[in-house]
Design goal:
Aspartate Aminotransferase, domain 2; alpha/beta; four-stranded antiparallel sheet; single chain; globular; 2 domains; eight-stranded mixed sheet; Aspartate Aminotransferase, domain 1
Length: 394
Amino acid sequence: MFSSRLHWDLRPNRIARLLEEKRRAAVPILDLTESNPTRAGFNYPPEILKAFDDERILRYDPQPAGTKDARQAVARYYARRGIAVEPERILLTASTSEAYSYLFKLLADPGDHVLVPRPSYPLFEFLAGMESVTVRPYPLLYCGGWAIDWEALEAELTDRTRAIILVNPNNPTGSYVKAEELERLVALSSERRIALVSDEVFSDYAFDSDTARVTTLSGLERGLAFSLSGLSKIAGLPQMKLGWIVVAGSPEARDRAWERLEWIADTYLSVGTPVQCAAERLFAGGESVQEQIRRRTRQNLEFVRQVVEGTGATALPVEGGWYLTLQVPGVHTEEEWIMELLERWNVLAQPGYFFDFASEAFLVVSLLTEAAIFREGVDRIRKCIENRSFPQVQ
């Protein structure tokens, strides 16, 4: 009766069931998984509401790639970062998730596949599956820092590979693609006529500077590449539903991709008029939110590093983004750690297997969490780690 694309087990897992029981019992939970900035206690300036005081929102003038004014607003965002991106290379979407769906339609036929980093964002399998495209992971190896496993990546390439996806910085490892890696990726993808897709939603949230890092592929002039971002992360405004794709690469490849991509967008016309009219002012209003996020993530990162030191747990190095990975003693599985934290300590974290870590045991926490909740939650994690003799989950 239903499409075979929806083949996933939709039943809640054990962690979700326990969390629901706790919430039904009105047990206060210290949620260290918060990813929604609008629920994380930030102060949003009133200019954001005033951004919609615009008579233009009453007129519908659909443009497949988005309105000229909104695309210029995105171009000015890049210009403030010292990056030249012409509005003619910017196509607006309602979200980065929608951007992926457009790109899978553009690049792949049913049964084709794309390569995705491992560990990384857990939504790729769903996004690709909705387009009848499969994902193949390529490992990121950790040795004091994260790097692409080139032998494994090349082993996954076939004549049905259509794209290599980068998450830059990665979620949850917080690692950036390095310039040397990009050179190799460009050479490899150009030779095989494979596109590069770079998810750059966390790119503005670096914890320090490093000239070896690549912050965007939007200026690439070889092969074919797509840079994805949006207001959800860079301005802390997920509810505004405005993302975009920057088409990069050689002029010929860009032009061919753009013609088809614009046609796809014209079929859906998903981006609302109000958010496009408000785009310039939303960028401006979101700057203060971004600065608040920067400040909190830095403070939470410094706190957790101090607290776990000497406990047997390790806060893995993180270059940017909103998340931190904790490597905890392998005396228990990740599920046992998470269930114990939730059952006994009323703390919610995420297990590494949610992000497809290749081994155990890792916990992932959100640095976006309000400071008081984060500090108490991390302190309880410390106590749980020091008390490693809890019964194994059956």
